[in-house]
Design a protein that fits this description.
Layout (H helix, E strand, L loop, with lengths): L1 H25 L2 H10 L1 E5 L5 E6 L4 E6 L8 H31 L7 H13 L40
Antiparallel strand pairs: 1-2, 2-3
């Protein structure tokens, strides 16, 4: 019976050790959540006319246009805004992944930053960028589809004003 008791005690001590390891790994979760909540990334378009700030989860928190933006053709300005929004949201997601990686390190054998870069590369059809603040190539804009004349219930994302 003594051997069985020694075995149970050893198993219990092993269990306690694993609990302490888990507690140590998750001790930084509150700090990580706070850092993610404060996260903010600002990106400016290559021509300097558009500046976008994104927060946690890629949420756009600010959009600024310079006076020079009014001299840009509307379609080009829209493309510049969208491109800058994509870059800001992508940079915020990369920054958020970096915070997760810093907190958990290699505890789970997952490189969250690399996975985010790969997912972004797949989504945008580009090579996975390294976490640098290099200007990204501009994505060509697709022409907006004009609704058919009889389509009175179109709630698409197209412009609400039409040129005559």
């Amino acid at each position: 019976m003594s051997a069985q008791m020694d075995e149970l005690i050893a198993q219990f001590q092993n269990f306690q050790s694993k609990v302490r390891q888990a507690e140590a790994r998750f001790a930084g979760v509150g700090d990580m959540q706070e850092r993610i909540a404060r996260l903010e990334t600002t990106v400016t378009s290559p021509d300097g006319t558009v500046t976008v700030t994104a927060g946690a989860g890629g949420t756009i928190t600010d959009l600024r246009l310079t006076a020079g933006a009014t001299r840009v053709e509307a379609g080009q300005l829209a493309a510049t805004i969208m491109s800058t929004i994509r870059r800001a949201a992508a940079a915020a997601a990369q920054q958020q992944a970096g915070i997760v990686d810093e907190t958990f390190g290699d505890a789970f054998g997952v490189d969250v930053s690399a996975q985010v870069r790969e997912a972004q590369a797949e989504a945008f059809g580009t090579a996975a960028p390294e976490p640098a603040s290099e200007p990204q190539p501009r994505q060509p804009s697709r022409p907006a589809r004009r609704p058919a004349a009889e389509d009175d219930d179109d709630f698409g994302q197209g412009p609400i004003l039409r040129r005559s």
